[in-house]
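hey m, so remember when u said the tokens were messed up on ur end? i reran from scratch. heres the input so u can diff it against urs
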Amino acid sequence: MSPNSDSILSQELSRRAALKALFGAASAAILFGLPARAHAAEASKETTDKLNAAQAQLDEVQAQLDSIANEYAALANKNAQTLNDIENVQGKIDDTQAQIDEKKAELKKKRNDLSDRVAASYKSGGTNILSLLLASGSFEELVANAHYVEKINKSDRDAIEDIQTIQSELDAQKTELEAQKADLEKLKDQQTAQMQDMQAKQQEVQTVLNGLSDDVKELMAQRDSEILAAAQAEEAARKAAAAAAAANKNNSYSGGSSSGGGSYAPGTPQQNAGSGKQQAVVNACYSTPSSGQNWCAAWVTNVFRNAGVGYFGGNACDMFNAWCYSSDRSALQVGMIVADSSHSGTGAPGLIYGHVGIYVGGGIVMSNEGAITSKSLDSFISFYGTGSGVRWGWLGGIALS
């Protein structure tokens, strides 16, 4: 996935929380915990106006980015349907070829049987048929026996013709299915090219959005700095007045604060048994650290590089389009990548770039979600299969098994 542009606004909205930690409990209390009179601490009108204008531009470009993401998601869904259609047509082609092979074998047997009977009749001088005719006790029986011999020959010919007809029909059906598949492959290539164009457009808009975001951040910092300075001046005046009053009454005030924390130590995951390159990939899954939030494809690339398989670049949807060809669970093997090209679960980046992980066996898919996670295949499909659907295959076309 690409850098998460959807998180920009939420990060800015949490800026006040960050300021609490930056300035400490006392100054944070000035900025966030003052009574009603703290409304006097304000930024300048010039700074506020510039910030509002920059935020409006940011919102407009973000809306444009969301629109691109939604268009991409719709196209990815169509592409997923095309992939399903290709898979279904290929299944029909395979079934038809099996029927053709069966009819060819049947036709060969019929011809061999007929050839054997003709050869046997020739070697015996035709005495079998002649004996049958000469054994007729009457003219009526002779006619009946002759008709019987002719009927047997015609039955053989009809059976062969029927098989040939069925085989011709199956050949025509296979040719039609192969033409359908070729059209679908062409459609898939067109859709993939459209999605790549939309990715390029998204990157252009993302660049503009990043620039606007930087402007907003700077203006927010300036605004917060002005508010803080005004609040500190007001608080200083309030404290001076309070100190004077306290001195008069010979009173004092003291207070304290406490803080706490915790740590999290993840457990050691259970590795799945395997051999050779598959086991090397599984081992690398557990030893390769996260590449950072939204860099799922980079993590997959590092895993395969660390496992000694090779280097494969691209983002999640690139890997999906190039290497993920199956949704048949019986075809899923340890070391395969499991991916989608678009999903709605993580906002615009997920819609445009999708997500990719690695199947480590035991029904578990590992992936980088900011931290390395292990999900059941059902959970992975349930979450990431909301758009284009989830498929799997060998990264780089290299079968590890």
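this time it looks ok to me. Strands lie at 337-340, 355-361, 364-368, 372-376, 391-393. if urs says something different then somethings off w ur setup not the seq
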